[in-house]
Amino acid sequence: MSIAHHIRNALQHASMIRRVADEGIKMRQDGQGSVFDLSLGNPLIEPPPAFYESMKQLLARGKTGLHRYMPNNGYPETRAAIAAWLRTDLDLPFTGQHVFLSVGAAGGINTLFKALLGPSEEVIFFAPYFVEYGFYTSNHGGLPVIVETNDEFQIDAESLRKAVTEKTRIVMINTPNNPTGVVYTAESLRNISEVLRDASTRYGRPIYLLNDTPYRRMVYDEYVDAQAPDPMHFYEHTIIATSFSKDLAIPGERIGYVAFSPQIEDIQEIDEAMAFCARILGFVNAPAWMQHLLPSLLDTQVDMSWYAKKRQRLLSFLRLTGYTCTTPKGAFYIYPKAPGGDDMAFYQELKRHRVLVVPGSGFGRAGYFRIAYCMNDETIDGALPAFAKAYETLHKPE
Q1: Range of the domain at 10
Q2: Fewer beta carbons below 10 Å: N end or C end of the chain?
Q3: pLDDT tens digits for range 226-285
Q4: Does residue 134 form part of some domain?
Q5: Number of H helices, E strands in the chain
Q6: CATH code (residue 364)
C-alpha cells in the first residue's frame, strides 16, 4: 500500500464538491457539447478596481524586501491595520495581538485547531456544513460532532445543548452559510451563546465559538448595515476565521486571518501558540505580497449587485418551476430540495443534460442540492432548461 491507510479511507469520503468539479473537467474534454457547471464556489467576477490600483501603487513605490519572511503571525503593521478596522466594525477593543494573518481561512482554522485541540477533544458543527471541517478536525486529533439544523437551516439551541459534553472544545459555525446561503439570526446567535456560557461554567474552561465567515460582508439588501449579525456581540469566547477570497474575489491568493475576541484571556499565550503551529504545520506565514496590499483594501469588496441579480433570477425560475428553496440572504449559493427526494438521482439526471450541481449528501444533508451562482449569465441561463426537465422527470406529486 503506497499511501497511509487513514488517507486512503478519507479519499473515499473526500469532498463531493471536488469530485463533481473533476467530473466537469472530464465532461468538457469529451467533445459532446457545453457543460453548465454550477458546482464550484470559484467566483468568476474580477476583483474590484481598487485591488489592481493598490498593486500598481505598491509596485510604483519600489520598496525593497517585499517578499522576505516576516513574523509567523504576520507583519505588525498589517495586523494593526486589521485590528483598527475591526475596532470600528465590531466596536470592540482589538489590538494587533488579536489578529493572526493566515494562508486563507482554511490555513487559519487548521493552525487554530493545532493550537487549541487536545487528543479526542470535540468540535461541533452544524449540518449542512462544508465537509472539509471534518477533515480539519481529524487532522489534529479532534473528533467531529454533527448537530442538525432545523428546516430553515437555523441552529436549534436545545440540539446544541444535548451535544455539548466535557470534551467539547470548539463549536464551529459558518454564517453566511455554505451551502445554504442562510444567515444565522441574532436570536440564534444569542441562544448559542447562552448554551456555551452555561457549559463553559459547568466544565470550568471556555468552549470557543469559531465563526468561519469568508462571506460575512456578502449579504443582500435585507441587511441595512450590509453585514451579517456577528457572534462576537453575543459571546465573549468568540473567534473569527475569515479570508478575502470571496469579498475581494481572490481565492487563489490564499490570504485570510484569525481574529480573537478582546475578551478572551491568555491572548499572548494563544498568539505564541498560533505562530509556533504555523511553523510546524509548514504554512510559516501568510503570503507577503497580499499582506502588503490588505491595509488599503479593508473597506473594499466586490459589487454585490452582480450576485443579487443572479440570485433573484434563479430563485424566481426555480420557484415557478416547482422547487422548494429557502431564500439565501448571503454568500452565492442556493440549496433547494431535490425533486423526488433523492439528491444523487437528481444529480445524475442533471448531469445527463450536462448540468452540474453538488448533491446535498456532500454537505451532510441529503435530499437537497447546492447551486453556486458565482458563474457568468451564460452558464446559469444554459442550465435553466435542464432544471425544468429534471423537475418534470423526478417530481412525485403528493
Answers
A1: 5-47+303-394
A2: C
A3: 567 899 999 999 999 999 999 999 999 999 999 999 999 999 999 999 999 999 999 999
A4: yes
A5: 13, 12
A6: 3.90.1150.10
Residue 391 CA: distances (Å) to CA of 105, 271, 340, 345: 36, 52, 8, 11
Can you tell me the distance from the alpha carbon of 5 to that of 25, in angstroms, rounded to the nearest whole number? Answer: 28
In a domain, 53, yes or no: no
- Do 17 and 108 fall within a single domain? no
The grid cell for 76 is 505588525
Q: Residue 250 is which amino acid?
A: I
Residue 104 CA, chain-centre distance (Å), reads: 10
- DSSP letters along 122-142, please? EEEEEES--THHHHHHHHTT-
- Give the C-alpha separation, 384 to 334, whole Å: 14
Digit-coded pLDDT (tens) for 330-380: 999 999 999 999 999 999 999 999 999 999 999 999 999 999 999 999 999
Closest alpha carbon to 100 in 300, 281, 301, 330: 281
**58 assigned to some structural domain:** no
Q: Which of 234, 269, 296 is the last residue of a domain?
A: 296
Domains contained in the chain, number: 2
Does a structural domain hold residue 28?
Answer: yes
Q: With 0-12 CB in 10 A as exposed, 13-18 as middle and 19+ as buried, what is 123?
A: buried
Could you tell me which of 136, 147, 139, 217 has the C-alpha nearest to residue 175? 217
Segment 152-210, tens digit of pLDDT:
999 999 999 999 999 999 999 999 999 999 999 999 999 999 999 999 999 999 999 99
Distance CA 387, CA 338 (A): 10
Q: Establish how many alpha carbons lie within 13 A of residue 70's alpha carbon, considering only the half-sphere containing its beta carbon.
A: 21
| Residues 275, 323 within the same domain | no
Q: What is the rounded CA–CA span in Å between residue 80 and residue 272?
A: 17
Sign of the four-CA dihedral 270, 274, 9, 363: positive
